Amino acid sequence: MLTLVYGGSASGKSQIAEDIICKISEGKNKYYIATMKVGDDEENIERVEKHRNQRKDKGFVTIECPHDIENAIKEMTSDKNALLECVSNLVANEMFFGGEIKEMEDTVNKVKDGIKTLAENSDNLVIVTNNVFESGSDYDPTTLSYMEALGRVNRELFNMADEVYEVVVGISMRIK
Fold first, then answer.
1. What is the pTM of this model?
2. What is the CATH number of domain 2-174?
3. I need a labelling partner for 101 at 20 to 30 A (CA). Which of 37, 123, 139, 159 fits?
């Protein structure tokens, strides 16, 4: 089963996604596939620490996979139940990998195909993605290309998903 959890920054989507994967994988292995490249940015370090604390007693095995997401499956044993967090980081990592900007179409295809492979090889996959499309429109061409790539990936994931939840102020609404 593929479940997509969608929402704005700090909407509570991570908690909802964790609750979903914990419920459907009760008593089985579960993996947290982390896509964020942390670096030494204080805000990102704090965000990662918050998420680690949030899931520390839930039995997740963490797999760090900031790009080439299909490779995460190699680290999963039986009971392949996973939470992929998050697609917006994955798209950015793929688009800007190695210090160069990849074409939007190439980025969309790479992310979409990688997630499709991961989903086909998982028992249950819950995916977290961001809504970054409601905060203005005065962006440079590179940012607009990233946003379009993320939007296209999100649409593909919506079509692939068995269930889709939108999260607003900590409240999830099933939309598919």
1. 0.89
2. 3.40.50.300
3. 159
